[in-house]
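Dear all,

This email documents one entry for the complex benchmark we are building for the journal club exercise. For each entry we list the sequence lines for every component of the assembly. Then comes the predicted three-dimensional structure of the complex as a token string, followed by one or two observations. Please use this as the template for your own entries, and keep the labels exactly as they appear.
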Amino acid sequence: MSSVTGVPTVNDGEGPDGQRVPQADRASTGRLGDRLFGGAATASGVIVIAMVTLIATFLIIQAVPALMNNQENFLTSRVWSPGGEEPGFGILEFLWTTVAAATIAMLIAVPFGVAVALFLTQYAPAWMRGPAAALVDLLAAVPSIVYGLWGLITFAPFFKPFQGWLESTFGWFPLLAQTGITGGTILFIGIVLSIMVVPIVTALSREIFGQTPLAHKEGALALGATHWEMIRTTVLPFGRPGVISAAMLALGRALGETLAVTFLVSSLPNGAAWTWSLFNGGETFASKIANNAAEFSSPTRTGAYIAAGLVLFVLTFAVNSIARIVIERRKAFSE
Amino acid sequence: MAKRIDVTDLNVYYSAFKAVEGVSMTVEPRSVTAFIGPSGCGKSTFLRTLNRMHEVIAGGRVEGKVMLDNQDLYAPNMDPVAVRRTVGMVFQRPNPFPTMSIYDNVAAGLRLNGVKNKKSLDGVVETSLKSANLWNEVKDRLGKPGAGLSGGQQQRLCIARAIAVQPQVLLMDEPCSALDPISTLAIEDLVSQLKNEFTIVIVTHNMQQAARVSDRTAFFNLRATGEPGRLVEIGDTTKIFNNPTQQATEDYISGRFG
């Protein structure tokens, strides 16, 4: 199962109707071309696996000594002073900001991106599909600093009154409580991130929606399904694994996006009072590391930031694994 | 439960291309009518106009009249969705919904109509699968994916899905062409049973099949490649196969062309 499109890419020995599909022919594996291509493909595969393993190892080796010296609880503390004789650091703030902003981004980007993909594949007139799809793809190619600039200069002035309205109307709700911070709040960052990841969701969803077999669509229409009912009974279920994979890629980008977030985020002063409000500021893992790259002066200091990076790595890995499990559990119904 | 179809002077177009020309015929209720003819003669295209499925393809449109009893299928205020709920269809290749279980496949049409009651769904699923001669084979695995069945079982599942919504007419577009002889026989037996309840129109490439299952047979042909297909003649199956009025029919059924 490809993590990009969600369609099976590696044959597992059985074809669609359960019959065996041909495996590599033993007799031909000795030929030069086969050895060359087979070797190159195998080497690429091995290198990728080795790289991931080595990155994880690097992160762990660098992080462990710093964690041993840590005077604070790494997971539950908000203190961040990794330097000095008695270093103490915890990631709670970054974890909350990263996860909250990424969640907001996904809540907006996935439904919106899927809707755009459905429009492009199912509703748009034929002449419009190609150009419109190219435009969406172009959005994915915009450098993130441009989103940062746009967010700061164009979007922030619009967002400020909106935030004020939310605070005055729904301020009793802890997530929307007033904080006095404007500008790079978590909600604002989440919305900017959502715009950055919509093209990812759309591009991949569009691919898989477009592959829905005509036979399934006609089957639904012949039962008396309306256009939307046809989409609901055939296109969406068929595209489900692809949409999940697309959402995972998008989430990876949202969790790890650095430049735009670093640019926009309102960092909190040391010792600022904690609140759960989405109108709080706060650094994400990526922005914290980027903002402080100049301070990697001692192994403990560096190790503290690397430990934070390791958490981001584990987070992404965990989310991907969950998505994989969700897709696998429904596998019998997706082919 | 079963209705008569009256077609008058029907032309079918795909954009500017005229695919079928000047078809008039009557299909009797509770009977099986077979459409035979060489490839490209428009028999499948014509079949799809009987439930407006040709409109799914861009540019598909008709001129002429199709009446279902007293209902004009192409009246301006007629919703194609409503037509397809009355006139069901089974396709050339079995197409159960791959993301659904056997049960959900059969229940799909009812759910589209807003039936949610578990008990009535259970009842309809069981009777439909029994009518499709599939119940005994699948009753212990209704929750398993429909795509896991054999080709013949999948086609019977599609028939069960189509008849679950109680259509007036059942259209079958070469329903056995992707199946082996045993599965074909099972479908043919089923057609003979179903005609007690439904008006059935079946397109087939197999003349023996037309002779075996149908009461009436319509022979379609085209003058030359690129010309529109047309109805050459329609009559009782025994007459078409033993004593056709047209020379072209005689040539086709005796294997001189096609």
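Observations: Chain A has two domains: 1-30, 62-334. Residues 2 and 202 of chain A are 17 Å apart (CA to CA).
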